[in-house]
């Protein structure tokens, strides 16, 4: 009799495990379907009516807060990650005039959880890449009046520009009035205000220049590691994976 009980218990446990695996597969398959169906593109804008959404641009689902789309222009082949907030104006249903307020160039990438908040012009150049949880805003709280809560005081605003080819590291903050040049690198967690010249690396809070490219002398201070070798023309992704496996000591 104990032997029969063990067989029954084993069969029950196996059936329960199978049901759990099947349920997990169904949940993940369903979520992938929801993500694909909920993604926003030019062909499938859903309820959003952007001033422009370029060819090949995709906003991943679930979206963050999005309003003022009429004043938001997205270039071609942009990648907007999950839970990214894009807002024009400090609240919905404002009339911001005839001109766009928030503009993304072609090939811009906004990492998961990033926020871009604009009530005056905020402009991303082409091929700006942002890590997750980047915050870019044209608005900052004011605290002049000590008798009024800070959150109820009218904010200070200033336009923001981010030059083409720049990289904004995870968790960095770009404050009102910031003007970043071309191919600027912003370190993770940096807080940037003011002007940053072309081909500079900034870090810290407040951010300061820690490395800069100088004509004739190159990067100063010099880079610690050699430049990576470019991928030869004609090499396929499959070949790269095979090379990586050969280099793996395991």
From TrEMBL:
Gene3D superfamilies membership: Hexapeptide repeat proteins
Transferase is among the record's keywords: yes
Recorded superkingdom: Bacteria
GO molecular function, one term: O-acyltransferase activity
UniProt keyword list: Transferase
Alphabetized InterPro entries for the sequence: Hexapep (IPR001451), Hexapeptide_acetyltransf (IPR051159), Trimer_LpxA-like_sf (IPR011004)
One Pfam family recorded for the sequence: Hexapep
GO cellular component terms listed in the entry, alphabetical order: cytosol
Family: Belongs to the transferase hexapeptide repeat family.
Protein name: Transferase hexapeptide (Six repeat-containing protein)
Organism listed in the record: Actinacidiphila alni
